[in-house]
Every structure is written in structure tokens, then in C-alpha cells.
Amino acid sequence: MTTSLRRDAERNRRVLLDTARELMARDGLSVSYEDIARAAGMGMGTIYRRFPDRRDLVTALFSEHVDTVVGFAEEASGDPDAFAGLCRFLERQLELEAANRGLGELLRGHGGPSELVRRARLRMTPLVAGLIGRAVAAGRLPAGVTPGDFVAVHVMVGSVLDASREIAPDLWRRALAVGLAGLRHARLPGDAPGDEVVERLYNDGK
Amino acid sequence: MTTSLRRDAERNRRVLLDTARELMARDGLSVSYEDIARAAGMGMGTIYRRFPDRRDLVTALFSEHVDTVVGFAEEASGDPDAFAGLCRFLERQLELEAANRGLGELLRGHGGPSELVRRARLRMTPLVAGLIGRAVAAGRLPAGVTPGDFVAVHVMVGSVLDASREIAPDLWRRALAVGLAGLRHARLPGDAPGDEVVERLYNDGK
DNA sequence: AACGAAGTGGAATCTCTCTTCAACTTGAGA
DNA sequence: TCTCAAGTTGAAGAGAGATTCCACTTCGTT
User: A7: Cβ under 7 Å from strand C?
Assistant: First the structure.
């Protein structure tokens, strides 16, 4: 097995992960390695040895959270009221993001594309599409709404969350209410965002 | 008068402004001074001598645009249909932002607070408040909507614009439709964003 | 209790952009 | 034309992270 760190190294790895988790939850994904190392009481060499690529660190830290979000989508799929499921899904996801800045950045693509998240979306998109289909059939959403529009609402609400988290940590709920009500009631102009566009929306335009 | 640059310096200043205007419209406010200087065919010293503070450059470049936006607000105020005026106001503003990335960043506070924009908002906020009041009175908006909620919608739509401008330059119109319909139909939870929060929303959380 | 592989610390280096400045050029008044 | 204040240039300095690297320490095996 590849897993056979020396006992002290394993302990350090854990401390490092715990420290990084905490810092990234509070300050976002791009905390400097130096800050993490200092907070963990180690040298920079240690963190670079263990996670030469930042993405490995992020993946190690957040894969559970991401699975949780996928779980939300699955639960939502089981909701008899599809539109309510959709709302609840976005709400729960944003609650996590509100509590964890790094997770929000990860899910909404700040800090670059992530394979972890890409795969999660691959699992969630069909679920969301199914929910939207059911909601449309039930007359709770206008025809023409696509998963891409949900992504747009997620990004929109996320931008309010990012801008107000320090000073009004619940304001995103207002934005979410606006976004969801808008989806229900808007006459959507133009073409629905295609896959490539959704990819961009979720990667901060990059 | 303070204005008495040597003729060559005056010419250079104009070239510099034109070049910077073009680059900032395309790439945003934070183009490096080096890029501007190179594109203008000058040394970096020249641009630093003329605009030691980037904000002076930005103000010189965008004050007309900002006045235009204030003009939009004034025109909107004159609209007999207050809600339509509000919609049109946001739409026109975003049209400008779509055509000019730097302007969008300026108006939505990426790249730091700007005195120019702060003053413009001081003039626009009462106009928007008046429009909202009339729209509420006309039953086109629910009571409880505040200028801060409009700011939030602006920020929300702007985030979609920023993320999709390169690949789907009209997608923001969809987001705008969602935002405006949402404002009309949402039951807004929590407290309306206060002045300090609006300031944050418009300054990218900083 | 000694050895070597694994692990660690943190100064040095790299990179990137912002900013300064001393030497050089030019415009325009005398 | 001559002079010099004003203007220009771009290399060098400063700052902030990111990343490397090697002398030194520690673990765990024999």
C-alpha cells in the first residue's frame, strides 16, 4: 500500500489538514502555504512535501463536503414536490457555503477548475434536470428553464454571499428568495446557457 | 490654471488616456501600467508621472460614463411607469457594463472603493428610492423592497455578466430577467440590507 | 545503540508586478 | 541658437508570495 507514513509524519499530516481546513473555511482557498504552516507550527517544507499541488490539499479537505452536497441533490430528487426540492437543495448548499468560505469558492470555481467538483456536477446535473422537468410538469416552473439557469442563480446568490458574509451573514437568503422567485416568474429571454457556458459560470469566467 | 503641460506632454497624455480606456474596457481596471505604457508606445515613467495614483487615471477615464449612468437614473425617475423605469435603468446600466468591463468593475466596486462612484450613488440612491416607492404604491413591487435590494440584484446580474461575458455576452439579460421578476414576486426574508451593507455589496465585500 | 530512510525547517531563490529614479531628450522662451 | 525646466525612459529596487533545497533531526528496524 502506498499509505505508510511514518507515525510522526502521519500526525503532522493530520494537524496540517485540520489547520488548513480551519483557515480555508474562514479565509478561502488561497490562504498562503506560509500561513498554514505557521498556524500548524511547522515549516513550509512539510506542507510542500505532503501537498506539492494545492489541488491535492483542497481535494483532501473538501471531498467529504462535496459528497454531502451531492447527497443533498439526491435527497432533493426524492422530494415529491420537485420545486420545493430544488429550492431546498440550493438553500442547503448555500448554508454550507455560508459557513465555509473555501467550500463556496470551490463549488463556484473561484480558484480554478477542480476535478473533484467537475465530477460532482456530473452526478448532480441529471438530478437537477429531472427535478426541473418535474417542476415544469407540475406547473411550478415555466418551460424553458434549464439546469444552466439554476447554475446562474447559484452564482448570483453566491456573489451576494461573498460580498456580504462578513457584515450580513444572512443576506444571501434574501438573494436566494429573489433568485428562486425570479426563476418561477421570469420570462427568460435569449438562449439557455449551454454546457460550455455553464462550465464558465462555474469557473468564474475562466 | 494648473493646466499647462508642454505640447508633447499633452499629446502623450491623450494617447495614454485613449490607450488605457481601450485596455480597461476590454480587460478591466487592473491592466498593468506596463501594458498600458507598452501599448501606448511609452515608458512606464510617463504614465506614473501623469497618474501616480491609479484612481486618478480611472476617474479621468470614466467620469463621463458615470455621469451617463446617473443620467439614466434621472431619466428613469421621469418614467410614469416607475417599475418599468427601474427595469430600464438597470438594463441600460448593464448594457454599458457589458460593453465595458472596466466600467462594470468600477460601478460594482471591484478594484476598490471609488470616490467618483460613491458620489454618483449619493445622487442615484434617492432617485431609486423614489422609483421603488412609486412602484410599491402602484402595486408593481411588494412593500419591503429597498434600494439595497436593487443593489443586490445589480451585483447578482453583474456576477453572471462577469462570468459569461467572453462566451455568452447576452446571458446577463437572462439573469436580469430573473432578478427583476424575483424582486417583484419574492417574499423577502430577513432584514433589508442597511447602508453599510450596501456599501459592502458595492465594494466586493471589502 | 547504530544506521539509513524518511521527515523537517526555513533561508535562499524565483517570479511577478508595482514603483522609483538618475541619466538622457526635447520643447519653447530669451 | 542656446538654455534649462519639463518630460521621458527603462533598468533597478522593493514587496509579496510561491517554491526549492539541503543540512539537520527523528523514527523504527536490526
Answer: no
Q: Taking CA atoms, what residue in A is nearest to B181?
A: A182
Total-model pTM: 0.95
Block residue for cell numbers 491592466: B31
Cβ-based interface (< 8 Å): residues of B facing A: 149, 152-153, 155-160, 162-168, 170-171, 173-175, 177-190, 192-194, 196-197, 200-201, 203-205
Cell 456599501 maps to which residue?
B199
Spatial separation of the C-alpha atoms in residues B179 and B202, rounded to whole Å: 17
Rounded Cα gap, residues B60 and B9, in angstroms: 16
Nearest residue to C10, CA vs C1'?
Answer: A43
**Dihedral sign, Cα of residue A102, residue A108, residue A113, residue A119:** positive
| Helix, strand, or coil (residue B29) | coil
Over its length of 206 residues, how does chain A's per-residue pLDDT go in tens digits? 456 889 999 999 999 999 999 999 999 999 999 999 999 999 999 999 999 999 999 999 999 999 999 999 999 999 999 999 999 999 999 999 999 999 999 999 998 999 999 999 999 999 999 999 999 999 999 999 999 999 999 999 999 999 999 999 999 999 999 999 999 999 999 999 999 999 999 998 87
Covered bases, chain D (protein CB within 7 Å): 6-11, 17-22, 26-28
Taking CA atoms, B21 is separated from A130, B100, B171, in Å, by 46, 9, 25
Determine the length of chain A: 206
**Of all residues in chain B, what percent carry a pLDDT higher than 70?**
99
**What CA–CA distance (Å, rounded) separates B108 from B51?**
22
Q: What is the SS3 string spanning chain A?
A: CCCCCCHHHHHHHHHHHHHHHHHHHHHCCCCCHHHHHHHHCCCHHHHHHHCCCHHHHHHHHHHHHHHHHHHHHHHHHCCCCHHHHHHHHHHHHHHHHHHCHHHHHHHCCCCCCCHHHHHHHHHHHHHHHHHHHHHHHCCCCCCCCCHHHHHHHHHHHHHHHHHHCCCCCCHHHHHHHHHHHHHHHCCCCCCCCCHHHHHHHCCCCC
Q: Which residue in B155, B27, B179, B170 sits closest to B95, CA to CA?
A: B170
